[in-house]
Each structure stands twice: as C-alpha cells, then as structure tokens.
Backbone:
C-alpha cells in the first residue's frame, strides 16, 4: 500500500520514512519526523535527479521512486544488558530506540493511586555513555491536578495521557512561552477525556482521542527542590494533563541531558513512553 501524500508542515512516522529513504538514496536528511524546509529541499533535489515534477510534495510518483532499489539499514541494537525499566518497556511491546551514546529514552510510570493531585508518579530517562547505561528516576505527576479536573478547559473534559509509546512526538521548545521544556510539537499522543469534575481519575476507553494536545514534559514550582517537599506538594494548577516534574533540579537535569543529545548527536526529536506501575522492586 502506497504511503499517504506528505508535504511541508506534515509530521509523523510517514515523514520519518520519507527522510530515511532520502538518506538511503544519497540525500542525507535528518530523521526528525518533521517535514520542514530542509526535508523539502532534499525532496526537490531527489525529484530533480529522477526527472519528476520538482514541487517538494511526496505523492505517488515520488514514493514509487523513493521505494525503488533501496535498502534501509537496521537501527543499531542497544547495548545489553538492558536496565530493568527498559526490559519492562520491551516486554510491553514498546521499541527500545537507541541511536548511540547520549540518546535519551524518556519514560513515565503512572502510580496505581486513582486520586489526583499528588506527585506520586515517576518521570525518568535512560541513556548510555561509553556503552554503559545510566537511568534516572524523578518524582512527578503524569496526571492533571485537581484544579484542572474540576475546571476543564474543554467541554470534552480534561486530558489524561494514555499509556503508550509516542515516537519522536517531542522537541525542545518553550512551555507556555516561558522556558524551555520537552514539548509535544512533532507528533500526536493519545489522551483520555475526564469530564466528571472530581479528583478521581476517570479513564474510559471510549473517551480516548488522538491529537496535538500540548501535553508537555515540564516542571512545577521552583520551591519543590527536595524529595521531602515533593512528597508534600500538591499538583493543583501545575498540570492540565502534562507530565510534570515535582523538583526543579530534576527538571534541569533532564533538560541538560536533552540538550546534550541535540548538540552531540544532532537529534532534536524525543520519544516518550508512558507505562502503568507494575511492581516496586522493578522500578529501581
């Protein structure tokens, strides 16, 4: 089946596939899943080389040429042994995408507590340095706070991110126009819509929707700098469905690592995997 037509401004897995084909044909293109000016330029160069209409739009004829006589190299295998949290991700059927040292694998672990408003979830990341794994776990919330649950900004209800793997859906950008964070800019995510206006999280399968909801990974108050403060803090307005660090130092560590990936590897997109809690002993 021929992939769908893509053009400037499109995002997602089909764009990434096009970028991989362009690179394999000798037109090196960043695989960031975003069809921006750089990708359009490479498409036009490829079209010209194949005597196609040079319009920068990847339609049926361009796809046919892109898919002809090309072999995509397999992604590199992550070094083993995998840390327990990544072993669990893999057991759930999620891919472990690793592109070398300093490539981040961002994840969240939602606690089993059905009541909102506490930083009782976990945000984390795993990466390698000289082939050896480092894993961070930080206190956070993966749920909206009570304020936004009781005062939804949408008639459909407040967004609660659904567990899943969201490949290259994120990039470094300004959160709420104020400071750099890991923002949902490049791909859709799936969210439940909670409309009952209580503190209890309601995640009805029939309420799920996919889209660009701005469910960023950012920080809460600069006052929650320690574990003890994080355990006592309330989420309230800090999350309307975003994934939110309780501690500013943890958030800054994540951002330092994210910028290092971008600057060292030249990879500016980030994937995020949200999982449900399983057993405490496996989370460390």
Residues:
């Amino acid at each position: 089946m021929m992939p769908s037509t893509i053009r400037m401004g499109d995002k997602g897995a089909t764009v990434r596939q096009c970028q991989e084909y362009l690179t394999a044909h000798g037109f090196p293109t960043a695989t960031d899943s975003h069809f921006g000016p750089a990708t359009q330029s490479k498409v036009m160069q490829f079209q010209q080389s194949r005597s196609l209409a040079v319009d920068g739009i990847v339609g049926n004829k361009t796809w046919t040429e892109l898919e002809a006589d090309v072999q995509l190299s397999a992604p590199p295998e992550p070094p083993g042994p995998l840390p327990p949290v990544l072993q669990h991700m893999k057991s759930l059927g999620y891919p472990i995408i690793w592109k070398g040292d300093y490539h981040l694998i961002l994840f969240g672990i939602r606690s089993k507590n059905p009541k909102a408003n506490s930083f009782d979830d976990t945000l984390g990341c795993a990466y390698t340095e000289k082939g050896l794994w480092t894993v961070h776990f930080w206190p956070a919330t993966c749920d909206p706070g009570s304020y936004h649950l009781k005062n939804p900004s949408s008639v459909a209800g407040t967004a609660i991110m659904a567990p899943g793997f969201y490949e290259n859906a994120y990039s470094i950008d300004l959160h709420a126009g104020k400071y750099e964070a890991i923002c949902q800019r490049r791909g859709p995510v799936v969210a439940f819509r909670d409309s009952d206006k209580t503190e209890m999280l309601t995640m009805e399968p029939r309420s799920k929707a996919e889209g660009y909801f701005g469910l960023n990974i950012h920080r809460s108050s600069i006052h929650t700098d320690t574990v003890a403060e994080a355990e006592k803090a309330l989420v309230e307005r800090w999350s309307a469905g975003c994934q939110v660090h309780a501690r500013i130092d943890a958030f800054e560590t994540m951002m330092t690592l994210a910028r290092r990936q971008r600057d060292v590897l030249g990879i500016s997109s980030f994937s995020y995997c949200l999982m449900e809690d399983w057993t405490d002993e496996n989370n460390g």
Observations:
- The mean pLDDT is 90.
